[in-house]
Amino acid sequence: MNNWKILAVDDEPDILHGLVLRLEAAGYEVCTAADGLEATRLAISEKPDLILLDIGIPGGGGHMVVDRLRNIEQTCAIPIIYLTASTGGEDIRRALAQGVQRYITKPFDSAQLLRTIAELLPASCPTG
Amino acid sequence: MSHPEKLKVLLVDDRAENLVSLKKLLERPDAEFLLAESGNEALNLMLDHDLALVLLDVQMPQMDGFEVAELMRRSMRTRKVPIIFVTAINKERRHQFHGYEAGAVDYIFKPVDPFIIRSKVNVFLEIKRQQLAREKLLVELNQANNRLQEISARKSEFLAAASHELRTPLTVIKEYTSLVLDEVVGPLNKDQHRCLESAFRNCNRLAGLVDDLLDLDSIESGQSRLLRTRVDLIPVVQDVVTDFRDKMAQAGQRLEVDLGPETPAVLADPDLVTQVLYNLLGNAHKFVPTGGTVRVELGAGARGALVTVADDGPGISPQDGERVFEKFTRLDRQKVRTGGTGLGLPLSRKLVEMQGGKLELESELDLGCVFRFDLPEYSTDRHLEAFVADGCRSGGREGTRWTLLHLRDCSGTHETSEQLRDTVLGLFRVGEDRTDRITIEDEHRQLVLLRTERDGALSFLARLQEKLERGSEALRGLEFAIQDLDSAGKPEGTLCFQPLAGELETLGRPS
């Protein structure tokens, strides 16, 4: 374990389960949510170090989750990666405007996803 | 009731007997004659009828023919209706009429010569008939065009939705294959590994197909992004070649590269050039057998730079050469090979053409393939046109009117980039709440934002205006407006129209 905690959000259980397997194998601690409300709740209570977020989820969608988290002091600095099947320009523009760190389209390359996650996490391990 | 096809001619004379004899003289099956005995009566009839021609007696009591004509020319409805004045010879008085520029005017002198008046009326009626036919065609053409656009838009929507739906299951299949393949869930033997590798490779192929389909559709419907700029091709080619070096070495293929140092800079979109190179090299990698050679050359061409990707693979017979650029073409030799989407080459050709170049294949069976494409040499003039044309394209549907907005810095005050961005985005999306600053008449307009504080911006505008006046094809439909922003201050920082605003720096500097 490297002690980093990642929150993975997707309404597709198969994708979520795949992400858990992949991330745990890479040594991350993982918590999951399938909708926007659950994602917001866990982001506050679990204090993840990074969030993988699908855009097309129930409960307001990924954009609303980001807007909410950016307005909460404990969560505003958590790095976020959009992981989405949407290649639409509007979603990408919105992501940029929200200051979302990365935008990865599905189907994704898992090696690239792990590299991107590593880039966004600080070099040293968290304490505790 | 008159036949709808009949043309209407109004005869105006204060003497009823003149009207009757004129009508008799001119009568024909395709025309309906309306009669008026005074100017007022004539004007009333004009309100109710769409007229092809008016024959107007000049000498009438109360309101004479010239006065009637003056009134006709003031109303939009009758402004363009041709008039034939019927008058005794009186050349001086002709100058009292001032409506010549608005519509056709002719004269017939009394006593009326039947042959002359009939032929004059014929000419005007023929003109009207042609005009009506043209208008009808135009309406039909517009309707057909709208229908086609609607169908095309629906097709694009369908493709976008279908591709989105395909991506989710594809993601699951690919990720789970990859999880097993990476032995995250347990060890694999060699055969299992090989089987899953095939599955994984084909997941990627399917993903590529979905991407290519979407790309091709957005190009064909004119919605793809294009951002041309000055490009030095050497590093672009080098980057792609580096990506292929290992793959080709593993496949036992030789990769030769010759980057001519004399290659001129081109006007192109570097991302699209990269995409084309990936397709051509990927294609060669797929078809060249072990021990074969792929050669990449870069040099000067007749119109700019010339890029060549040659291989000594199985080749294609010359008669099949053009077919590789058709969608989903599978030539016989390709049946035995796997990996392509069937869209890479058609897509590449479109991408090159979008940038003003040509992609061609020269090939002989058993002698390999030579793909060549050229790109236009960079010049500030070409860049100027591309700059605006690409910007129009990036926002646009067919039929959109463009406004080039020049924000002039009058106050010299600094405003934060966020404030300006808000202003521009507000206008772009809503178009209402900031109309005190900039007037946008309808939602189909696009703003092209220029940063005028940049070096060369004013000469850019001057040259753009000059090109617009000369009717440059690339800039057709573009409107040009200069708007002072007195209190908003300087356009600065990164804007939503970053491609346009950002490009300006490299333009217009005196060369």
Question: Can you describe this structure?
Answer:
The complex is a heterodimer of chains A (128) and B (511). By secondary structure, chain A is of the alpha/beta class. In chain A, 42% of the residues lie in helices and 18% in strands. Chain A has helices spanning 13-25, 36-45, 61-70, 89-98, 110-120; strands at residues 5-9, 29-33, 50-53, 80-84, 102-105. In chain A, helix 1 (13-25) links the parallel strand 1 and strand 2 (29-33). In chain A, helix 2 runs parallel beside helix 3 (61-70). Chain B is of the alpha/beta class. Chain B contains 13 helices and 15 strands. Chain B has helices at residues 16-26, 39-48, 65-74, 91-94, 114-181, 190-220, 233-250, 270-287, 344-354, 380-395, 417-429, 457-469, 498-503; strands at residues 7-12, 31-36, 53-57, 83-87, 105-109, 229-231, 254-259, 266-268, 293-300, 304-311, 358-364, 368-376, 401-409, 445-451, 478-485. Mean pLDDT of chain B is 76; it is low at 395-401, 407-447, 450-457 and 483-511. The chains are: A alpha/beta (128), B alpha/beta (511).
Low-confidence stretches of chain B: 395-401, 407-447, 450-457, 483-511
Please give the number of β-strands of chain A. Answer: 5
Largest sheet of chain B: 5 strands, parallel
| SSE pattern of chain B, N- to C-terminal | EHEHEHEHEHHEHEEHEEHEEHEHEHEH
- SS field, number of helical segments of chain A: 5
Major sheet details of chain A: 5 strands, parallel
Q: What is the residue-mean pLDDT of chain B, rounded to a whole number? A: 76
Q: Shape of chain B from CA axes?
A: elongated
Helix content of chain A: 40-55%
Q: What string gives the helices and strands of chain A in order? A: EHEHEHEHEH
Low-confidence runs of chain A (pLDDT<50, min 5 residues)?
Answer: none
Helix content of chain B: 40-55%
What is the multimeric organization of the chains shown?
heterodimer
Structural class of chain A: alpha/beta
Shape annotation of chain A: globular
What is the rounded Rg of chain A? 13 Å
- Proportion of residues in extended strands of chain A: 15-25%
